[in-house]
Amino acid sequence: MSALLRVEELRVGFGRRGTGSVVDGVSFAVHAGRAVAIVGESGSGKSVTARTLVGLAGAGSWQTAEALEVLGKPAPLGAGPSSRAWRSIRGRQIGLVLQDALVSLDPLRPIGREIGDAIRLHTPLSAAQRTARVLELLEAVGMPDPAERIGQRSGELSGGQRQRALIAAGLAADPAVLIADEPTTALDTTVQAQILALFETVKARGTGLLFISHDLAVVSRIADEVLVMRAGRVVEQGPAAEVLGDPQHEYTKALLRAVPAGVPRGRRLSEGAGAPGAGAQDAVDAAAAASLEAPLDLMSGGSVLEVRDVRKTFAVRGRERGDVRVAVDGVSLEIARGTTLGLVGESGSGKTTLARMVLGLATPDSGEVLLDGAPWAPGPERLRRARRPLMGAVYQDALSSFDPRLTVGQILADALDVPGVRADPRDRHSPVAEPGSGARTYPSGRDAAGAEPTGANRAARADRVTGLLEDVGLAAETAGMRPIHLSGGQRQRVAIARALAPGPELLICDEPVSALDVSIQAQILDLFDELQRTRGLSYLFISHDLGVIRHMSDRVAVMKDGRIVEHGTTEAVFASPADAYTRTLLAAVLPPPGPARTL
Amino acid sequence: MSVLPEGSVAAGWSGAAGSAGSSGPVGSAGSVAGRGSRRGRRLGLGVGQWVSLGFLLSLVLAAVWPGLLAPGDPLAIDPRAAFVPPGWGHPFGTDESGRDIYTRVVHGAAPSLVIGVAATAIGVGLALVLGMLAALAGRIVDFAVSRLLEVLFAFPGLLLALLVITVYGPGVVTSTVAVGLATAPGYARIIRSQTLSVAASPYIEAAVVLGKSRGRILARHILPNALVPVFVLVTLGVGQAIVWAAALSYLGLGAEPPAPEWGAMLFAGKNYVTSAWWMTFFPGLVIVLAAAATTVLGRALQKRGVR
After folding, report:
1. pLDDT, tens digit, for every residue of A412-436?
2. Is the ipTM of this structure higher than 0.85?
3. Would you call A403 and B203 a contact, using CB atoms and an 8 Å cutoff?
4. Burial A104-119 (b: 16+ CB within 10 A, else e)
5. CATH code that applies to domain B47-305
């Protein structure tokens, strides 16, 4: 069987020809009804590879290949992106589905027109025939009410519907090969499962698929052949079952290990690199085992956070007066000292609104939040301020949570310079901390805060900043840098250091690893884990990723439409979910790839 | 009440969360490349920008120490040397009383620059109060201030300045204040919107979570970040204020002849445009150059400000 798309030794770079290569010798072939997947982290060159195959490598790039054939004919490699040769290939022979459906669809045009464009360009169909074909396509991609959706704009559609519309546009001219670049990354778990099922039917119809993803679980579900890319090179290539089931290359193994799903709580996900006190892996493992064996010990301190029946509604604009949307509808939670409560739910379920009420940033309509058993919210900010150091927050987008004018050192010094900053959590909060390195003793925070910045004081402050950076595994030199110059993982470490600065008991972490690559995510999750052990922290850990939640949490709460539909220990919820929605959610989770894990 | 309206904070939070998913990793890769070029551009002024900087520095020198560039007396009359065209003895020529135009232009730098800078300072100062109030003091104040600004916007700036002068009488001080008042609404609007967007940004929320007081958040985070774009506008605005102040003097509402002020010199020369063009040409030229130089530098700052 001849290949629909064949690539030999593809090289792409930016800059002078032959220099600055970002794709370095990639070869593969896509056959009818088969799926090839390129896996890699950001910057690995996987997206550039995909774009080069449709002549969209980008301005200032050069491309060479020993062979690049589309349907047996050589592709016009090196021709301009808008050249006639490429335009006849794009859409007609190779369809492209991009990641971010919200950005990839024209917000001002109905999706019917968007999809119809692809048909108009490549077929001689009349307008009426085109409409019929668009309806057919929308039906084929499982769009609900296609006749109604055809006239709607992208803003009126949900994320899953937009992605379906994009796939329909990619399939419109019935291309032989469909390239999909991270098509499920922005989607909720259940929607992702539906979209993947759709790709399977596309594949079954005989279309060749090239699938670009960073998500190994997604890849293991859909791919027949897998290429693992790193820094522009293919480090491992072969049938999916072999590559994912019995990886040979260290990098592939590390990637698979970094997937948190199914890894028991307390076990490290990343290799020692970059983690503080990396040499003491055995000690950490021992401590992990200890903490797993004696979790009740930690809970003796009672609950650090109690949420009692909070409710929050928002006025809906444009509708009738008094119309409200219920964001959080009577939620009660409790977090025992030193433990993690995982809060899981899909987008729009009210997780973030709940987090904002816990943080005292949004006022609940009714209900109350208690911190350390004392009233916390609702109430004036003035009364909360003195106890703010007890609670920290880590956000998904670390960069935007930093004042852009400040360096890392200034950000941390700023966080230390708050009245009531505590040098260290009280002893009873860190029962396993004695041998660890985390029970650092700082110069007393109360002396530093409020006093005039004398020379000695400034030196002490600099010491504490260095100490914080060390605690989160960053070099002291980082203090002089601006967050914009740091990588995503480093930024999140700085965000964690800032949250730790006042010596909190509880951290509210809202999707803290969702924007990170899987190996970086693993390091950050390990850091959270370690800090919990050494400092006796409690976490409210919010995520849409069930694998992350399962790995991190002692107890889990499942949220849907503003309500907690299920609440219990992690084992109980995952092993025998009582609620129908939880079961749907769990069923949609892709099994972790790689060598079988004992769950 | 908290520092910020609750709704706007919610928008900032969810907006950031939404964009992070797609741009996070890509952004980090791009910023690494961005750092090198930022370093390289630190003093990379173009030729035009160097010339502008040089011209403005010489204007400042002329304002601070006019005797160094033109030792003569700008008011000394010499009827025998009236209407001398530009030449060796008088590089810019002389006026109807034989006063040296070059000396007068150099000595005119001080009042023009002082009026330009002072008017801009008045405008920005007033705008700061109005803009911050509108952004942070709640809905009613915002409504009142915004409507007031809209009314002021309805008048062309110079007309507004004329209105002030009509009420309070002509003079250097009045025209300075008038120009300041006339520019305030523009600055106030920008400061208001800038303050609103900064106040709604996640890093302000992060500061609230850290337990910072409202005053500290305002002083350390909101004010400096809201002022960054204003700083650029001020550079642009000084040039505009110089032009306006000259315009008022030309109309006889600011400095009066024979004071060596550029606008007043234009006014004095206007009757002799056909016979002694240099009387209006050279003062006019420095006004144009001063405005152009501040604009060129302001634009350069603006471009650099884009992260």
Report:
1. 999 988 776 655 444 333 333 333 3
2. no
3. yes
4. bbeeeebbbbbbbbbb
5. 1.10.3720.10
